[in-house]
C-alpha cells in the first residue's frame, strides 16, 4: 500500500513539474513575489560543493520556461587560492559566468552568422539568478554583478533551513507560501543545482584521489599514470579490478600490476567512508 502511494506521488510530482500551465503560473508568481521587472523565462541557479574547504566546485543549472534545460548546465572548478570559503566561491563563479556573458554581448551576431558560426550558450542572459544560500551568498553574488556593471539580471537566494528567499540589500527574508507554485519551482531549481554540484564533486574527487594514490605507488611514471587514469577513472574502479585487468592496461604488464594490486590491498584496510552533508554539499570522511 505504502509503495503504491509513493509511486502515485512520484507520478503526480512528475506530471506537475512538466505541466506547462503550472510552470507558467509558477513563473508569474515568482515575478510578482520578488517584484521583478519581467517574467524570469530563463533562470540560472548556482551551488557550491566542497570537501572540508578543499577541491571546491560549483554548478550552474538552467531552467527555461520553468523546465530544466540540461544541455546548458555547466560545472566550474573553483580556484581555492582566491576563494577560501563558500561566499568567495560564489563571487568567483558569478564573476566568471557574467564575464562570459559580457564578452559574448560584445560580439556582433551578424558577423558570427556570416561565417557560419553561432554564439555560445553563455551568450543568453538569465532574467533571474538563484543562489543556494542566504544573505551572505546573495551579497557575494550581488557584489560580482556590481563590479561588472551588470544591472539587468535579478538575483535572489534560497536558504535551505527555513526555505527563506533572500534578496540583495534586504535585512529580512521573503517567506513564500509553502503551497505556492513559485516556491515549488524555486525549490526544484535549487535542489537540481545541489544534486548536480555533488555529482560533479564526487567524480572530481574520485579522479583526484586516484591521481594521489598513483603518485604513491613505486614505478609509476607519467605514461603509466595516464594509462590507468584513462582505463579506470576512479579509485573505486581500480580497487574492483582484478590483477589480470590491471596487467592488461597498456604499458603496465604483470610485474607492475602486482605492485599496484598489493599496494591497493594494503591501503584499502584503512579506507574511510564518505559522508555527504545534504544541507551544505560538504563531503567529509569518517573512519570505518
Automatic annotation (TrEMBL):
Record keyword Phosphoprotein present: no
Spans traversing the lipid bilayer: none
Biological process terms in GO annotation: DNA repair; SOS response
GO cellular component: excinuclease repair complex
Keywords on record: DNA damage, SOS response
Domain UvrC family homology region profile: 4-145
Annotated protein name in UniProt: Unannotated protein
Amino acid at each position: 500500500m505504502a509503495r503504491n502511494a509513493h509511486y502515485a506521488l512520484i507520478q503526480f510530482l512528475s506530471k506537475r513539474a512538466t505541466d506547462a500551465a503550472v510552470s507558467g503560473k509558477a513563473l508569474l508568481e515568482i515575478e510578482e513575489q520578488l517584484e521583478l521587472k519581467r517574467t524570469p523565462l530563463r533562470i540560472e541557479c548556482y551551488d557550491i560543493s566542497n570537501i572540508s574547504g578543499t577541491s571546491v566546485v560549483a554548478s550552474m543549472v538552467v531552467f527555461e520556461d520553468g523546465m530544466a534545460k540540461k544541455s546548458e548546465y555547466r560545472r566550474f572548478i573553483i580556484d581555492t587560492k582566491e576563494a577560501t570559503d563558500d561566499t568567495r566561491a560564489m563571487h568567483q563563479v558569478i564573476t566568471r559566468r557574467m564575464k562570459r556573458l559580457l564578452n559574448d554581448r560584445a560580439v556582433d551576431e551578424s558577423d558570427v552568422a556570416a561565417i557560419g558560426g553561432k554564439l555560445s550558450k553563455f551568450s543568453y542572459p538569465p532574467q533571474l539568478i538563484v543562489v543556494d544560500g542566504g544573505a551572505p551568498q546573495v551579497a557575494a553574488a550581488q557584489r560580482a554583478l556590481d563590479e561588472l556593471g551588470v544591472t539587468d539580471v535579478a538575483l535572489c537566494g534560497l536558504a535551505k533551513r527555513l526555505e527563506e528567499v533572500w534578496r540583495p540589500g534586504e535585512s529580512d527574508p521573503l517567506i513564500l507560501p509553502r503551497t505556492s507554485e513559485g516556491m515549488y519551482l524555486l525549490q526544484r531549481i535549487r535542489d537540481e543545482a545541489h544534486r548536480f554540484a555533488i555529482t560533479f564533486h564526487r567524480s572530481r574527487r574520485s579522479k583526484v584521489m586516484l591521481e594521489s594514490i598513483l603518485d604513491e605507488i613505486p614505478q609509476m611514471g607519467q605514461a603509466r599514470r595516464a594509462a590507468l587514469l584513462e582505463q579506470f577513472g576512479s579509485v573505486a574502479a581500480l580497487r574492483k579490478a582484478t590483477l589480470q585487468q590491471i596487467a592488461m592496461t597498456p604499458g603496465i604488464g604483470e610485474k607492475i600490476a602486482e605492485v599496484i594490486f598489493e599496494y591497493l590491498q594494503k591501503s584499502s584496510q584503512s579506507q574511510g567512508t564518505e559522508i555527504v552533508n545534504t544541507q551544505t554539499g560538504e563531503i567529509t570522511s569518517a573512519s570505518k
